Amino acid sequence: MEYKSYSSFDPNFLWGAGTSSFQVEGAVQEDGKGLSVIDVMQKNPDITDFSVASDHYNRVEEDVALMAELGLKVYRFSIAWTRIFPDGNGEVNEKGVAFYDHLINELIKHNIEPLVTIYHFDYPQSLVEQYGGWLSRKSIEDYRSYAEFLFKTYGDRVKYWLTINEQDHVVRIPTRLGLTGDDHYEQLRLGYQANHNMCVATALTIKTFQELGIEGKIGPAISYSMVHPASSSPDDVLASKDAMLIKHNYLMDLHCYGKYSHMFWRYLEERNFTPSIEDGDLDLMKQYPPTMLGVNYYFSEAISAFPATKEYPIGYQKKALLPEAEAGVFEVVNNENLAATDWGWEIDPVGLRLTLRELHERYNLPIIITENGMGAYDKLEEEDVVRDDYRISYLREHIKQVLLAINDGVNVFGYCPWSFMDIVSGRNGMAKRYGLVYVNREDFDLKDMRRIKKESFKWYQKVIASNGEDL
Ligand code: BG6
């Protein structure tokens, strides 16, 4: 048997970049758009002014021209559900439909493949009010029929579709589910019901996609970060395996195999977190698995064992969003081998190669990296210069590892740094910038919003032009 060795990227490799609707569009209540849970949460902003974001809604042509100048082969963006259906279901908002129609046509005019995220955090507030949102099974059909509308409207031009962005995060962030109150434990329990309903909705949507005969690929965008045992102690190694299951693989096992593994189900049972499941749900997932995977990767984590004690009984968690400790299971500790960003995210390019291998071995799907990037305090210097050499070095080292993973046999067909332009970060506003393009605004001073090419833009332009040779 012969094995191919790849010393360079495939000529059709999709070099891209990404954004999401609520983080760049602005115009939160213009042209008939309804409110999302994000808009409601951010009505009383204390970290930044979200209402204008990066003003992309009013600058589509200018932004797409910059993407073309950069040489993008693919652009990942999300559709704001509440621009299409202001109430999440019911009446269509034609102006919203026209906005994305125009964006997609502009991309195609510039030979840029659109990669659409159907839902990226901005769930319709009205569905929360109508029936409790993702906690109700009614949410399944509303999501499916919203997606069906998108397939029928844009499916003649869009080949790549992402179903739900970072479901594992959404179910752990109460406000993104539209939950209020402060019963953390109860919110976690509800999160697992929402998670189950989202998995059913994803499978049904893939079924619809296939029945409509859309030519293309579809799958979730998952947040997936390698974990390393903090030491060679067998307890730490075991803890790191359990952490991988609880953080990431439980979800992929559902998407790809329609199964709650024995260990994960026991974990849910011990905490009274088991969701209610209807006959046929798991079979549906098994029958309609994703045909591609979007992978969001930023950092890895070092894991050590964390036994349950009287002080920290089963069920105890140190942090809600990305649990940093689960009594009886694991604890995230510093990795002294790695440097970190200003927000403490440990930079681990080899972790990306390991992540890709793990996903390939377990799920064997074509992969596109849908997010990878470095949030930083960028400084705009005189004459519109942003020297973000730290970002260049971050991206360069990760791209090298992508090629090595391809050589390992992983089918990676594209790479989208996060983000094309500066976005408003959900928790850190404009202070934490990710873009290749600088957007001239601060958190509360909206300035002139002008676009400025960072040094990383010029560098990535060369990378794309040389198909990854000139790193
Ligand atoms: C991912 C999200 O979780 O990480 C993005 O899909 C987000 O929307 C990105 O911007 C970086 O996270 P943060 O919190 O630094 O903005």
Q: Based on helices, strands and strand pairing, what is the structural class?
A: alpha/beta
**What is the gyration radius calculated from CA atoms?**
21 Å
DSSP helical segment count:
15
**Number of DSSP strand runs:** 14
How many structural domains can be distinguished in the coordinates?
1
Keywords: Glycosidase, Hydrolase
Protein name: Glycoside hydrolase family 1 protein
EC number: 3.2.1.-
Q: Would you kindly provide a written description of the structure presented here, covering whatever features stand out?
A:
It is an enzyme of class 3 (hydrolase). This is Glycoside hydrolase family 1 protein. Keywords: Glycosidase, Hydrolase. With 471 residues, the protein is of the alpha/beta class. The chain has a single domain (14-465), classed as TIM Barrel (Alpha-Beta Barrel), CATH 3.20.20. The chain has helices spanning 21-24, 37-41, 60-70, 81-84, 94-109, 125-131, 138-154, 167-170, 184-211, 234-257, 262-271, 281-287, 349-363, 389-407, 455-465, and strands at 14-18, 74-78, 113-119, 160-165, 217-223, 227-229, 293-296, 301-306, 325-326, 329-333, 367-371, 412-415, 437-439, 451-453. The chain has an 8-stranded parallel barrel with strand order 1-2-3-4-5-7-11-12. α9 (184-211) crosses α12 (281-287) and α10 (234-257) packs across α12. The longest helix has 28 residues, at 184-211. The chain is globular and about 60 Å long. The two termini are 32 Å apart.
